[in-house]
Amino acid sequence: MANVSVFNMEGNEVGTMELNDAIFGAKVNEHLVHLAVVSQLANKRQGTQKAKTRSEVSGGGRKPWRQKGTGHARQGSTRAPQWTGGGMVFAPVPRDYTIRLNKKEKRAALKSVLTSKVQENKFIVVDELKFDEIKTKAMKNVLANLKADKALVILNDNDQNVVLSARNIEGVQTALTNTINVFDLLKHNTVVVTKAAVETIEEVYA
């Protein structure tokens, strides 16, 4: 099992923690990680874009001029794609972009990213994160003490003092143990996680 240092909010090491190899020492499957990211981004798409084809735009029921003898190219309708106000060729229509992964694939991708963060020493465990009041400066100081920039902060409880203190810091995002996902983990340079959150992750995903 991998051992990681546990820090306090001042950035001092206060102990160590053994990580479960089933989650934090898993085989890194880059293909599954890629699929998970593509799936997550695709599932965010609304798929509501729509443009009209020549059969859907109004007008154009009459041939604009006779077929021969005018010197113009022949035209059948003023709503053909080459005309201003005409229909669009291969117009986009509403569609469902959803890409589905099964539960095992999602878990394997998540474990792969968590493992890679541990291997790259970008997984920082804090004994606790607790503020008496909402204070952005206090959160900034904690992240500076931990040398964590562009961090994803994973909490076990929805502590509003911590969440709101981190909200206005550029590049910093908070998440609960049941909302972590592959894309957010990859998007941030560092993962800062409370000791309680690590224990919950091990319980849920082991």
Automatic annotation (TrEMBL):
The keyword Flavoprotein does not apply. Keywords: Ribonucleoprotein, Ribosomal protein, RNA-binding, rRNA-binding. The keyword Cell wall biogenesis/degradation does not apply. One of its GO terms (cellular component) is ribosome. InterPro entries: Ribosomal_uL4 (IPR002136), Ribosomal_uL4-like (IPR013005), Ribosomal_uL4_dom_sf (IPR023574). Residues 43-86 are annotated as: Disordered. SUPFAM superfamilies: Ribosomal protein L4 (SSF52166). It holds the Pfam family Ribosomal_L4. Belongs to the universal ribosomal protein uL4 family. Forms part of the polypeptide exit tunnel. Part of the 50S ribosomal subunit. This is Large ribosomal subunit protein uL4.
